[in-house]
């Protein structure tokens, strides 16, 4: 009896130890139900069930459908179901004897609610972890971008801005010099910026030299303009002690030094000469050629000399020294203050307007025009004549008057000049006449630039020279 009791106690102790072991497994693995059943005929006998909290040794129940799925020694794949015990995921594993025969089945039931909760917890944890990884990666990428892209661009922008504002001057020592070695488009931009700055510095140096040269030339041109203007008679009244004539002349130069010139002078006490001319071209060469032409015409105009011979000789002299191929259109006339005879010669110049007091009209006087001066050697010029009466006038001009251009590229023209002379200048003296014509030209041109000199001269025969003056001069 004692032996039997000892065996029972030993078996109980072993059972309890196994049950505790299974309970620890259940707790460690968070298993809802863990039990082992032995199959006997059509029933199943519970051997272990630590999840119930008490021993169920020998408890029998009808075989369930789960046992039908256990064929031979195969395991029961996990299945999910809702029963009175809860929402469970169940699996079974055959327990084999030492002979390899199935003697029992171990079942495990896991609460799906806990699985789902753990899954959600794991998912949330993974999402948070991913977000942290993304943020860390983003910060690292941002730091690298700033170091590799943003910062070099900021430095390049700042340096370029300083260079563009000229804060440190335009010098090769102030070219942007940065430590940019990104080996990409930013480094290419940096080198392109350096190249551009070198080009700008070279341009600024050239511009400085050109500007200085331009200022020097401009100063010289201003001096040339002043010299040119000072060579033209500009004090009026021109002959305050003579009342036989009234004369007035103006020249409005264009922006460049031009070649227009006028002149008037007493050939002798009885004869007065007027000259109106226009040199081809602009600038200093034209001004110098103008000085030569003006001087030659005046020097060769002598009392009693034929004006055709004057222009013939002047033309030959000009042709000898005309290496630049320039030419002069010129008109010269000499008025006899006693008889009113007006001798003139024309070398390709504009036709004058003649005012007749008798008819109170201006009319373009059609004259035979010779060839320009300094064009061809040995040209023979012919002197011509017309008769002026007391109160008659001669209005002469250069092509800067008729070729004045408005904003629509329309020319002032002969018709408009004829109109202003006959509508506004009939009762005007020479000075008033020129002012009225110039005002009409200005109104026509408007804000358009003046491209040529505007030169005009008006001579009025006011009184015959008295014989007593002649006798006094003799």
TrEMBL record:
Q: What is the enzyme's class at the highest EC level?
A: hydrolase
The residues that cross the membrane are 122-139
Q: Where is the HAMP domain?
A: 147-205
| Top-rank taxon | Bacteria
Put simply, this protein is called Phosphoserine phosphatase RsbU
Assigned keywords, A-Z: Hydrolase, Membrane, Transmembrane, Transmembrane helix
Pfam families per record: HAMP, SpoIIE
- Is Cell wall biogenesis/degradation one of the keywords? no
Query: PANTHER family from the xrefs?
Result: STAGE II SPORULATION PROTEIN E, STAGE II SPORULATION PROTEIN E-RELATED
Q: Which GO terms describe its cellular component?
A: membrane
GO biological process terms held by the UniProt record: signal transduction
EC annotation from Swiss-Prot or TrEMBL: 3.1.3.3
Task: Name one molecular function that GO assigns to this entry.
Answer: phosphatase activity
UniProt source species: Blautia wexlerae
């Amino acid at each position: 009896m004692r032996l039997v009791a000892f065996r029972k106690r030993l078996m109980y102790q072993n059972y309890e130890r196994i049950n505790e072991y299974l309970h620890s497994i259940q707790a460690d693995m968070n298993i809802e139900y863990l039990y082992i059943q032995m199959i006997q005929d059509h029933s199943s006998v519970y051997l272990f069930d630590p999840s119930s909290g008490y021993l169920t040794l020998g408890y029998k129940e009808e075989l369930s459908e789960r046992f039908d799925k256990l064929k031979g020694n195969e395991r029961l794949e996990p299945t999910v179901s809702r029963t009175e015990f809860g929402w469970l995921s169940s699996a079974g594993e055959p327990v084999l004897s030492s002979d390899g025969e199935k003697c029992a089945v171990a079942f495990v039931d896991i609460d799906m609610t806990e699985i789902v909760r753990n899954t959600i917890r794991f998912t949330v944890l993974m999402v948070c972890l991913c977000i942290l990884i993304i943020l860390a990666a983003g910060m690292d990428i941002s730091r690298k971008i700033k170091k590799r892209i943003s910062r070099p661009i900021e430095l390049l922008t700042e340096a370029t801005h300083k260079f563009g504002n000229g804060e440190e001057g335009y010098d090769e020592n102030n070219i942007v010099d940065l430590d940019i070695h990104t080996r990409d488009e930013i480094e290419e931009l940096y080198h392109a910026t350096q190249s551009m700055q070198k080009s700008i510095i070279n341009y600024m140096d050239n511009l400085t030299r050109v500007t200085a040269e331009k200022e020097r030339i401009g100063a010289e041109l201003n001096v040339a303009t002043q010299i040119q203007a000072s060579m033209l008679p500009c004090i009026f009244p021109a002959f305050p002690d003579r009342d036989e004539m009234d004369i007035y002349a103006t020249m409005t130069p264009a922006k460049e030094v031009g070649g227009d010139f006028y002149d008037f002078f007493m050939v002798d006490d009885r004869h007065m000469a007027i000259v109106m001319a226009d040199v081809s071209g602009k600038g200093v060469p034209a001004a110098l050629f103008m000085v030569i032409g003006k001087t030659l015409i005046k020097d060769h105009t002598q009392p009693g000399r034929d004006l055709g011979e004057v222009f013939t000789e002047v033309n030959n002299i000009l042709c000898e020294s005309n290496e630049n191929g320039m030419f002069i259109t010129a008109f010269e006339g000499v008025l006899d203050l006693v008889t009113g005879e007006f001798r003139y010669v024309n070398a390709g110049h504009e036709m004058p307007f003649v005012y007749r007091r008798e008819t109170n009209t201006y009319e373009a006087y059609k004259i035979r025009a010779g060839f320009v001066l300094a064009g061809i050697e040995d040209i023979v010029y012919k002197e011509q004549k017309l008769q002026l009466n007391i109160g008659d006038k001669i209005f002469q001009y250069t092509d800067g008057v008729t070729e004045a251009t408005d904003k629509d590229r329309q020319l002032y023209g002969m018709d408009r000049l004829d109109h202003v002379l006959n509508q506004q200048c009939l009762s005007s003296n020479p000075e008033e006449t020129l002012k009225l014509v110039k005002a009409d030209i200005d109104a026509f041109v408007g804000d358009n630039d003046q491209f040529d000199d505007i030169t005009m001269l008006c001579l009025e025969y006011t009184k015959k020279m008295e014989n007593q003056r002649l006798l006094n001069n003799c």
